[in-house]
């Protein structure tokens, strides 16, 4: 696992020890960023099920201004912090150990909006429709921002969720990437 492109291109990233997390493959990560825009000029990113932090770190490497990483697994949080140090991005990041829904509710109090939100929950614990609804109904996403969901191919997400619409869905083996934005 590595940073695919940008200023930290080629830098290796550590995976979370054990089998509780499923890192996004380099092929899928590269596809995600080819879809949403290969490079950014600023913007705030939320990596909600951070795991190793690969998606948020990739966004930082490609020009995002700041990223917030959230995972409820202690080992994942430690891995994200280590990967951020490896990439020298600790000043551009906040890392929290929290449940996804609680983290979203805490972010509501800060009155911030994200340019990109990555939702890559463990396949067995997906609550994507509810989380997308919270994000969109409470304006956590910038008006032209995107929510990127990584999920099992067997999971079918609706064309519309609250104030949002699915704009794209692509499958890579047993993984599907579905992207939402405001209607």
UniProtKB/TrEMBL annotation:
* Ranges of biased composition (kind: Basic and acidic residues): 1-10
Q: Does the keyword Ribosomal protein apply?
A: no
Q: Which UniProt keywords apply?
A: Methyltransferase, Transferase
Q: Which InterPro entries match?
A: RNA_MeTrfase_RsmD, SAM-dependent_MTases_sf
- Entries under Gene3D superfamilies matching the protein: Vaccinia Virus protein VP39
Q: Where is this region: Disordered?
A: 1-21
Q: Which GO terms describe its biological process?
A: rRNA methylation
Give the SUPFAM superfamilies listed for this entry. Answer: S-adenosyl-L-methionine-dependent methyltransferases
**In the UniProt record, does the keyword Methyltransferase occur?**
yes
UniProt GO MF annotations? methyltransferase activity
Checking NCBIfam families in the record gives: 16S rRNA (guanine(966)-N(2))-methyltransferase RsmD
Protein's name according to its UniProt entry:
Ribosomal RNA small subunit methyltransferase D
Q: What is the lineage of its organism?
A: Bacteria, Bacillati, Bacillota, Bacilli, Bacillales
């Amino acid at each position: 696992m590595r940073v695919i492109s940008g200023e930290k291109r080629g830098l290796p990233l550590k995976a979370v020890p054990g089998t509780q997390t499923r890192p996004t493959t380099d092929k899928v990560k590269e596809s995600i960023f080819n879809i949403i825009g290969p490079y950014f000029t600023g913007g705030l990113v939320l990596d909600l099920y951070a795991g190793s932090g690969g998606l948020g770190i990739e966004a930082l490497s490609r020009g995002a201004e700041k990223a917030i990483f959230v995972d409820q697994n202690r080992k994942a949080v430690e891995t994200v912090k280590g990967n951020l140090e490896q990439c020298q991005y600790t000043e551009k990041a906040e890392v929290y150990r929290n449940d996804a829904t609680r983290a979203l509710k805490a972010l509501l109090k800060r009155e911030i909006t994200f340019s990109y939100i990555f939702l890559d929950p463990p396949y067995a614990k997906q609550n994507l429709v509810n989380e997308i609804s919270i994000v969109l109904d409470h304006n956590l996403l910038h008006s032209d921002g995107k929510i990127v969901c990584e999920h099992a191919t067997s999971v079918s997400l609706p064309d519309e969720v609250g104030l949002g619409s699915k704009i794209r869905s692509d499958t890579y083996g047993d993984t599907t990437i579905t992207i939402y934005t405001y209607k």
